[in-house]
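Response to reviewer comment R2.3. The reviewers asked that we include at least one raw input/output pair. We reproduce the pair for YciI family protein here without editing.
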Amino acid sequence: MRFMIIRRADKDTEAGVLPDEKLLAAMTAYNEEMVKAGVMLQGEGLQPTSKGARVKFTNGKPAIIDGPFTETKELIAGFSIIQVKSREEALEWLKRWPAIDGGGNVELELRQIFEAEDFGAEFTPELRAQEERMRELAAKNR
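Raw output as returned:
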């Protein structure tokens, strides 16, 4: 089972405040622990929304909205992708998140990632093969 750990943004991440050495060391140790356990697939921090944009479609027509975005409780500051055996195991990893992040006041969200088998018969063998080819090509782009 793959899960995404979402680290919610706060006033500091949206202001572009970079982590200090102590937090960087704690996050590096946490990530290294997950890598060594064989569960971490990817993890990245995100720039503040002042450097981002949204595209909103109305009746099929796109409109670009430049950041920053004001409602920080809905924003994401970073993410990790992990692969574990169960939701409970994923939650155990979340509970190990470095307590010093955000001065001890951080909100994390856990979301399970869809797997091909979740889509049932609608995801035909042809579509599955096409998806696999896209994943292989995408992996070469890294």
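Residues 30 and 97 are 7 Å apart (CA to CA). The mean pLDDT is 95. Further pairs are available on request from the corresponding author.
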